[in-house]
Amino acid sequence: MSRESIHRNDKAEPAELLTRSRAEIAKTLDRIMRRKLQLTAYLDDDEQLIVTRLRRVDPVEDYILVDYGQSRPANRLLLERKAVLFHCESGRQHIQFSAPLPREAVEDGNAVVRLGFPEYLMQRQHRRDPRFRIPPELRLKCMVECPGVISFDMDVQDISRGGVGTVTHAPDVKLEPGTVLPGCRIRHPLHRPICVDLEIRHSTVVRLPDGTSKVRTGCRFVGRADDIAELVGMFSLDLDESE
Fold it and tell me: SS3 sequence, 143-193?
């Protein structure tokens, strides 16, 4: 999928926390492992996505273990990488870390992937502004139309007055962090369409109860402040108070 015509944001958002402390990295990874949180990684120029979990964290012996994913092609690509960038959602934080030199290993009789211990770990805090959940029956849609490049729909899950929000979309749509999709339209059955630019921040795969998958993407809606405030004002369930 070509993305040459899609604008990119050259200003990287500063991290809330970047640590190179092995003790702090081990503590965070251990929490991810104990909670059995999903890790995701894009492979093969983002055309393949692997979903896995941490199995062991060993800062003394300088390695971590992760499970194989369900896709054999993705597993092969994982083992061909020199390093793998993993993403994880933990509460209100997005966590990412890069682990080097993946290779085959065995743990308790199970085939796993062994990687070197990460040199750094980055955490970004979500939702500085209160978010408001979109009632499912309202079906708030974000229409992405980049002629000659990509066109698709997304479901808006939540949004804040500052424009920070979450959307879900089909797994075959790959959106890299930092990408800006210009001229998107938010359509609401009881509201006039609102035009925004959509800044992609991070994505993760979620499993639905029926066994299918969707991609949950954190983003920022960039548009007229009055338009976004008017749209948010239609919803009353404040996630930061209800969670």
Answer: EEEECCCEEEEEEEEEEECCCEEEEEECCCCCCCCCEEEEEEEEEECCEEE
Give the bridge partners for 197, in sequence order: 222
Share of the chain above pLDDT 70, in %: 78
- Of the two residues 229 and 47, the one the predictor is more confident about is 229
Band the pLDDT of 40: cuts 50, 70, 90.
confident
pLDDT for the residue numbered 135:
66
Q: Give CA–CA dist 128/81, Å, rounded.
A: 35
Closest CA to 230 of 190, 198, 182: 190
Q: Is the pTM of this model over 0.85?
A: no
- Cα 118 to Cα 54: distance, rounded to the nearest angstrom: 13
Rounded to whole angstroms, the Cα distance separating 160 from 117 reads 36
Extract the tokens encoding 182: 């210009």
Buried b (16+ CB within 10 A) or exposed e, 135-173: eeeeebbbebebeeebeeebebbbbbebbbbbbebeeee
CA proximity to 228, closest of 197, 182, 201, 203: 197
Length of the chain: 243
Longest dimension (CA), the chain: 59
For CA atoms 94, 99, 102, 106, the dihedral sign is negative
